[in-house]
Amino acid sequence: MKVTSDAVFTVPAEKVWEALADFGAYPEWNPLVKSMEGNPEPQGSVQVTIAYPGADLLQGRAEVTGWVPPKYFSFTLRKGPAWWYQEEHIFRLKTRDDGKVVFYNEVYATGLSLRFGRKASSHRIRHSLDRMNEELKIRVEGPKA
Around Cβ 88, how many Cβ atoms within 10 Å? Predict the structure, then answer.
């Protein structure tokens, strides 16, 4: 199952990346990724807590699958064995020709547990990605006037 959300920023990609790479500040603004600690280099690991509304916390050691500042960060987190449930989170930044920056926030979820609530999971993840994008926008651009 693939769930995506995106947001357009009027600030440079480096400023958006700075907020995404500041794991210690996540509890201040990020409604989805409540905490993240660790080494964000490829094949490294980070300790992550993800909070979807109406669901148990998804937390544990996540494998960093990509780290290319200031453009790309991805990690994989499991709930139980990989065959039961696994999510890969991908954060991508792309600067458009007009100078604006697009943040792509993606989750790829796999596993047998999806057979028991794919639609609800998809909705919950999409809502959470949208909220994270909104809060990230406020964090780097300030509140709407």
Answer: 18
Long-range pairs for 133-137: beta carbons < 8 A, 24 or more residues apart: 133/5, 133/6, 133/7, 133/103, 133/105, 134/7, 135/29, 135/30, 135/31, 136/7, 136/16, 136/19, 136/20, 136/29, 136/30, 136/103, 137/7, 137/9
pTM: 0.93
Write down all domains in the chain, each with its CATH number in brackets.
2-141 (3.30.530.20)
State the Cα–Cα distance between residues 27 and 20, nearest whole angstrom. Answer: 12
Tens-digit pLDDT string for the chain (145 aa): 999 999 999 999 999 999 999 999 999 999 999 999 998 888 899 999 999 998 889 999 999 999 999 999 999 999 988 899 999 999 999 999 999 999 999 999 999 988 988 888 999 999 999 999 999 999 999 987 6
